[in-house]
């Protein structure tokens, strides 16, 4: 009995059917209508064969690179620990867990709550000497050299530095108030240049000029 490796397409055809000989690979690579087994026809040369193989190798390499790039793991919305900070310093930053999928907001790192599956966000190497042990992109240094906040506390509307340097000035470089905020000079310490729009017309003064009660619409 034949082993499976010895079974060919030719042997499966009816016995009275003319048995076509398998075409050599080289004949498939030559220009259509011009060639038969290379070397046996004037239109098919070794040069054709080599050029065809070279083209196939280049195409295969291009496809392999494309597939590798498409399959590269990526976590949407999370800044990988080093590379994207250079490319997009104003992008929202986070800590990428070892699973390469879970993105932990900067202020959740070293907060004594494990947010990565294996607790990478709370490891001693990362949290042993705050803020120096943290990657630089997770930290924002306030104008007071002794103060720092997490990167996601910059431009979040709240006075986290205590002197509003995380919300105002060239150090923070924040965009204007978003649509959920109302721009004014707040009377409360917790805000800097915007107040949440939900505080408008609530019967309580939040802006120095009372614009939150007379101009702002929730
Ligand atoms: Ca945490
Ligand atoms: Ca802030």
TrEMBL record:
UniProt key word Magnesium: no
The keyword Protein biosynthesis appears for this protein: no
Residue ranges of every copy of the LDLRAD1-like C-terminal domain listed in the record: 175-214
Keywords, alphabetical: Disulfide bond, Membrane, Repeat, Transmembrane, Transmembrane helix
TM region positions: 49-71
CC terms in the record's Gene Ontology section: plasma membrane
Protein location: Membrane
A GO BP annotation: vesicle-mediated transport
Membrane topology recorded in Swiss-Prot or TrEMBL: Single-pass membrane protein
Pfam family, one: LDLRAD1_C
Protein name: Low density lipoprotein receptor class A domain containing 1
Species of the source: Malurus cyaneus samueli
């Amino acid at each position: 009995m034949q082993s499976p490796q010895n079974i060919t397409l030719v042997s499966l055809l009816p016995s009275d059917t003319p048995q076509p000989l398998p075409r050599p690979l080289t004949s498939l690579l030559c220009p259509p209508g011009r060639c038969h087994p290379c070397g046996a026809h004037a239109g098919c040369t070794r040069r054709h064969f080599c050029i065809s193989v070279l083209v196939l190798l280049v195409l295969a390499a291009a496809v392999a690179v494309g597939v590798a790039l498409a399959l590269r793991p990526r976590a949407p919305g999370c800044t990988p620990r080093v590379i994207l900070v250079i490319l997009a310093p104003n992008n929202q930053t986070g800590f990428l867990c070892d699973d390469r999928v879970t993105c932990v907001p900067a202020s959740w790192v070293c907060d004594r709550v494990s947010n990565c599956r294996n607790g990478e966000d709370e490891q001693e190497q990362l949290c042993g000497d705050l803020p120096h042990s943290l990657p630089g992109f997770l930290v924002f240094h306030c104008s007071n050299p002794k103060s720092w906040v997490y990167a996601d506390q910059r431009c979040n509307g709240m006075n986290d530095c205590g002197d509003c340097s995380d919300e105002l000035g060239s150090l923070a470089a924040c965009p204007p108030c978003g649509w959920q905020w109302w721009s004014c000079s707040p009377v409360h310490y917790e805000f800097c240049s915007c107040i949440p729009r939900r505080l408008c017309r609530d019967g309580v003064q939040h802006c120095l000029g009372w614009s939150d009660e007379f101009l702002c619409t929730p």
